[in-house]
Fold this sequence. Notes:
By secondary structure, the chain is an alpha+beta fold. The protein is built from three helices and twelve strands; from the N terminus they run ββββββαααββββββ.
Amino acid sequence: MAAALFLAAVGGYFLGASRTEIKAGGSNPGAAPMPDTAVVLIKLNGGDFVMGDSLDGQIDARPHRVSVAPFTMARHEVTLEQWDKVMLWGRDHGYPDLPAGNGKAYNHPVYGMTWGDAVKWCNALSEKEGLTPCYYTDSTRQKVAREGLADIGNEQVNWKANGYRLPTEAEWEFAARGGLTGKRFPSGDNISHLHANYHGSKYVSYDHCQREGSPSALMSSPPYTAAVGSFQPNEFGLYDMAGNLAEWCWDFYDSDYGSSAPVMNNPHGPDAGKNCVVRGGSWRHTAEQARCASRLSMPGDLPASYVGLRVTRLQ
C-alpha cells in the first residue's frame, strides 16, 4: 500500500521535501492493479523553486521564481504496454483515432505520438479509470477531447479535474530537479551513462560518459531506448527525467518565458500556439539537452522517435 518517504535536508535539497508512492490503474476498482500496466504515481508536495538557470547561457531558460501546487507524477515514462492497453480500450469507448504505440519492447517507453495524441490518451486513461478528464474541445469544458486534432489551449483545460494530464513545464522541471537547487541535472552538475540514457560526447565538459553515443546502442538498433527504470532515479524517486525519451509538456513554447512578477504561481504557458515544449532530452540528444532547464520546441503535430510522455494528476 502507500508508503511515505521523507527526504532530509542535505546539501542543496529543499528542507522537508517529501514524496509518497501510490498506484493507480485498473478499470475494476475491486482489483489490484497489475504492476506492468498500472501507473505508479509519486506524490510531490510542490513549493517555490528557481526555474531555469544561467549555467550555460541558454537565452530561453532565464532563471525566474515559480511556485507549483502539490501534484503527483508518474514514476516512469508511459510504456508501450500501457499505451496500447489504453488505446485498445479507447477505441471501444469513443476514441476512434488513437494510434497504436511504437516501442522497442513492452517495458520500454512508447514513442512517436503527436502532442494531440498524448492529450487524448490522457483523457482515455482518465475515463478508463472513472476519473474526470482534463481536456475539452470547448471553453465551457463540456465536450471531452476524444477524436480529431486536439486544437485546444488553456481555456479548454479543467485544471481542477482529478484525471490524468501532461505536466506543465513548471511541474516537469520541479519534478526533474528532485529538490536539488542550482544544478544542471537530476543527478547534480555532471552526468554519465550511470545516470541516464543519452548521446555521450567528449566535447561537453560536464559529460562524464563511458562511451560516445547512447549506452543502449550496444544492444539494439535505433531508436536506442532502454527499459523504463534502467537508470538511477532522482531524489523524488522519478526515473528517466534525463534522457531515454524527451517528454511532451502541456505548455506551448514561448522563447521569452518567465515573468516580472516576484513569483509565478502555477504557470500554464501561453494560451495558444503551434509548437509545444519538450523536456528532458533523449537517447539521441547530448548532455546539453538532458539538463533540467533545457527546453526544446516541437510542432505539436510532429511525432518523433525520441519523444514520449509522462502523466501527472492532482493530489
